[in-house]
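Narrative of activities, Objective 1.

The group set out to show that a structural description can be obtained from nothing but a protein's sequence at a throughput compatible with the screening campaign. Below is one input-output pair from the validation batch, recorded exactly as produced.
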Amino acid sequence: MSSVAATIRLRPTCAETQDRAPELALAFVPALLTAIAFLPLVPWIEMWLLAATIYFTFKLLTWRRAIVAGCTPTVGRSLAYLLAWPGMDAETFFSDVRPSHRPTARAWAEAVFKTLLSLALIGGAAMLLIDSQPTLAAWTALVGIILLLHCGVFHLLALVWQSRGVHAVPIMDRPFYASSLGDFWGRRWNRAFRDLSDYYVYRPLLRRTSPAVALAAVFLASGVIHDLVITVPAGGGYGLPTLYFLMQAAAILLSRSAIGRRLQWHRGWQARAFAAAMLIAPLPLLCPQSFLDNVVLPMLAAAVSLVN
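Output recorded for this entry:
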């Protein structure tokens, strides 16, 4: 397997032979209907509604896939997967395989620290900056929300389930320790989406085309989903989040090319510096100013008003 193909981990599944096309189409229908209907909602509420619709649709799809594959979870375990576990690894969550070890005190402390730090960013720095430095406040709040959910709350949930003997694999694997851009996206950041994209996009395309095309398609799908959640509620910046993710795909392919290898963009400190530059520099594409002004700042202002 080429190094590009290895960017997205291939995980065998007993449901491999299912036709994925109808399921994938269903996943986008609710979000698209919500967006097309132009519901008279406050933009930041519309954002969360779109995100929740996409998320729970994929949760139902992965639950159904596990059932078709032969899993027989109890009603309680099914509800736990759907409502109290952010991952998309239903077959693993429902399996009888127990964690190899119980969570350590250090793991609990790390998860709690990240949660508290995230809350400090949202409730402290962001709210203090909203009047004097609104753009900086918006970015601070965004970082806080991402850290709170992906690195804090989701990590705590993984530890809770592991302590109960459930094989719940955290969806984040210390992304700041990524050794390269490919390592960041393929192994460390949001493994829930990686599981989805592996099954619905990467594997099917890999049978019909090259690893590079399959990889680009994964990032294109991610971009479209982010466009729905970010630019539709913001009413502007359409296509910029998709461009951000296509740039990530291009950068991974470049780092694995002859030029990238000559410049050491695939390993060592050069790879880490290249990854940081490609992740951070184009962030205004992922979160355009219209999103900051029309969604994030009103949401932050509503939080401040609620607290006061």
